[in-house]
Amino acid sequence: MYDYAFHHIRSADLIRQAEHERLVREAVRVRRAARRERSAEGTEDAPAQRSRLRRNRHPRAA
Q1: Which parts of the sequence are annotated with region: Disordered (predicted)?
Q2: Distance CA 22, CA 27 (A)
Q3: How far apart, in whole angstroms, are the C-alpha atoms of residue 62 and residue 59?
Q4: Tell me: the pLDDT tens digits for 15-24?
């Protein structure tokens, strides 16, 4: 009986984990689509944003 209960607990956990991963993938997909739309529109702040991302986060060590 213990194995049966453990199987159901594990199965429910895997189902929850899969649903969470699906939601994360969907959120990433929506963000990418929004970013593509903004870049396709040719917004004014796009070049500034790119240059900001290329800059090193940490200063060089002496």
Answers
A1: 31-62
A2: 9
A3: 9
A4: 999 999 999 9
